[in-house]
Specification:
The chain is α+β, with helices and mostly antiparallel strands. The chain contains three helices and ten strands; from the N terminus they run βββββββαβββαα. The longest helix has 14 residues.
Length: about 200
């Protein structure tokens, strides 16, 4: 049975007032007082984030381009798909092209928008737009100052096995792996949705 949702007003929380708790170079932390649907008040703490992109770079031979990068909060090296934060007034495709080139040295002749995800809906405004990149050619990386990562290739058919084995635990990369599986099996087609930004 398909549920039709016409009116969400009975679920919406309304901001009364708030404050910026912390304003850093990368994250801003807010604390708001809100009115709940039943009229009571509550506090909501969350981070604001400008948004990001993730790229699934797929070679013609079925390999996918991956990265290994140390993630300080987890104190470990993570296996991930290339990704990065949007610069101010930068569109998603421009960001995807820039991040792929900067982090891997690769450029692509074919780009397909796949979807937008919200990885941490309970405490962040962050979204990540996922792009598929084909027609890859190698070039020179242009890593940001203080950025250290390695690139490697993996047969796309093995990426889900890495997820299952716990070798990939990054949520955006896991979602990318499931999208890739659907694309390679022709269950889903790229370009069925338009970018939201």
């Amino acid at each position: 049975m398909t549920q039709s949702f016409q009116d969400d007003r009975h679920l919406v929380e309304t901001r009364i007032d708030g404050e910026t708790v912390y304003d850093g170079a990368f994250l801003t932390i807010k604390r708001d007082r809100v009115r709940l649907p039943d009229g009571k008040e509550a506090t909501r703490e969350y981070t604001t984030h400008p948004g990001a992109v993730m790229v699934i770079p797929l070679f013609d031979d079925g390999r996918v381009l991956m990265e290994r990068q140390y993630r300080y909060p987890l104190a470990r090296v993570m296996n991930e798909l290339p990704a990065g934060k949007l610069d101010e007034a930068e569109g998603g495709l421009a960001c995807a092209k820039r991040e792929l080139l900067e982090e891997t040295g690769y450029q692509a002749t074919e780009w397909h928008y796949l979807t937008r995800i919200h990885p941490v809906i309970s405490y962040s405004t962050e979204f990540i737009d996922i792009w598929l990149a084909r027609g890859l050619t190698a070039g020179e990386r242009k890593l940001d100052d203080g950025e250290f990562l390695e690139i490697f290739t993996l047969p796309a058919t093995e990426l889900l096995a890495w997820v299952r084995a716990g070798r990939v635990t990054d949520v955006k990369t896991i979602i990318g792996a499931f999208w890739l599986e659907k694309l390679l099996s022709n269950q889903w087609q790229p370009g069925e949705r338009s970018p939201l930004r």
